[in-house]
Amino acid sequence: MTALSAMGIVVPVRDEESTLAASLQALMHAMRRPALAGVAMEVVVVLDGCVDNSLAIATAAARQMRSAGRGWEATVVGTDLGNVGRARHLGCCQVLERRKQSPGESHRHGIDGTWLSSTDADSTVPPHWLVCQARQREQGIEAWAGTVAVADWEGRPPAVSERFAAHYRDVTRGQGHVHGTSMGFSASAYLAAGGFPPLSTGEDHALWRRLGDVGAQRVHDLSCPVTTSARRLGRAPDGFCATLNRFEDQLTEEHGHVD
Known about the structure:
Layout: E1 6-13, H1 20-31, E2 40-48, H2 54-66, E3 73-79, H3 84-100, H4 107-112, E4 114-118, H5 129-138, E5 143-145, E6 148-150, H6 158-173, E7 183-186, H7 187-193, H8 203-213, E8 218-220, E9 226-228, H9 240-255
Parallel strand pairs: 1-2, 1-4, 2-3, 5-8, 6-9
Antiparallel strand pairs: 4-7, 5-7
Helix pairs in contact: 1-2, 6-9, 7-8
């Protein structure tokens, strides 16, 4: 197995000015871990139809990454795709194109030594997030799926967090969680699977199935949950926010109100 030489992290953004800075700062903390010394790092922020201040925030963070003295690369891409699957795929392609052109690396070696990670602009990764993925890769894993946690339930009735916790425990027993905000995969497996499909929602589960179809060694990891938002208005039509909204609707139907 080719040694890990690079990690590329893709962050799709649609009007996330209130959370984007914290998300990118958390990534920088994860990239600084001593266990990753010698691994090239690149962050690609894909601004998809943003009309708020996300561009300025992403540009400032990218400048900070590039000036950190660690050889990090950071790219901000603007697009109007209006589709999270296409946005994630665009970011992954940006990383792969740079690896193909990396000095001193053959095309094949650059791809085989590259690991891609996906997160979201309303989420913050834990400091050991990238290390967890790198260690799994060392054990031959080609696709990694992490879990999520909600730190702030403000604006949601307590019963919703309780319903979510019960549901999450049930699914965890079956090791079934897949979230676009906490995924990683080898570049070679990603290419073999055809990448993220052009879906406006469910692109994470679709890619996970594709990875299984091409025989990639997959693992679910419960050890480093990403903190994400419990907001009511999400960006993906049937994403995490929609799941919480369904729980709240179910509780209202069952009890007539939600406390």
